[in-house]
Amino acid sequence: QGYSNYNGLVSSLRWRMGAKFSGQFSYTWSHALDTCSNECLEPFNALTAVSLRYQINPLNLRSLNYSNADYDVRHSLNANYVYSMPSFFQNSILKSALGGWVAAGTFFFHSGYPFSILDSGVRSGQVSNVTGLATQSFIADYLGTSGYASCTSPNISCYSTSSFTPAASQHDFGNIPRNSFRGPGYFNTDLNISKTFTVHERYQFLVGAFFFNVLNHPNFD
């Protein structure tokens, strides 16, 4: 199994504004390549984007297998923050009730995972004399010429059969490497708001609310 991993720009930025706001931001660019992910033992995704764990072209391993790893993520952004709200009130009651609240949250984003588009109908074509066709995977021949389209939005049809060779006309194991296409990315942000009240010198009372996926943003496979 061939494997290489390129870690590009990795930056981390920390900032602090007095005692009121602090946060951390990190961005990673990477590219993971292999001929078979997870040592060919465990599928990364066994649901809709099935991992290809076997040699596709029996004549040449690298021609179709060596490509983006199942877990290849090009862009990844992570951030978190904590903001302590100052008290602008002179009145002790208002100051106690409205001052001192803390808002904190996280942001997570990464670009989509790669996947392959297969055509099981090719098994009955001119390659039907190949041994082991009952389990053989055939990558659909792609007719595009200007790169590989990405499926970035669930509201837009990403691919159509017209972009690929009909099964009856395909006589090879595929003309593009595995994992040439990409699904939609992932985004999530959480938020919590809390305040600590001093009940006694040794005791404090915390009240707050925690919001997970606060924007109610769906993430599709």
Distance between the termini: 27 Å
What composes the largest sheet?
A: 7 strands, antiparallel
What share of residues is helical? under 10%
Q: Roughly what fraction of the amino acids lie in strands?
A: 35-45%
Topology order in helix (H) and strand (E) letters: EEHEEHEEEEE
Mean pLDDT: 82
Sum up the overall morphology in one term: elongated
Unreliable sequence segments: 1-18
Q: List how many beta strands DSSP finds.
A: 9
Q: Compute the CA-based radius of gyration.
A: 26 Å
The SS-based structural class is: mainly beta
- What is the overall number of helices? 2
How does this model look, in words?
The structure is a single chain. This protein has helices at residues 61-64, 92-98; strands at residues 3-17, 21-34, 67-68, 75-84, 102-110, 114-115, 181-182, 186-200, 203-211. The chain is mainly beta. Strand 8 and strand 9 form a beta hairpin. The protein is 5% helix and 35% strand. Residues 1-18 have low confidence and may be disordered. It is built from two helices and nine strands.
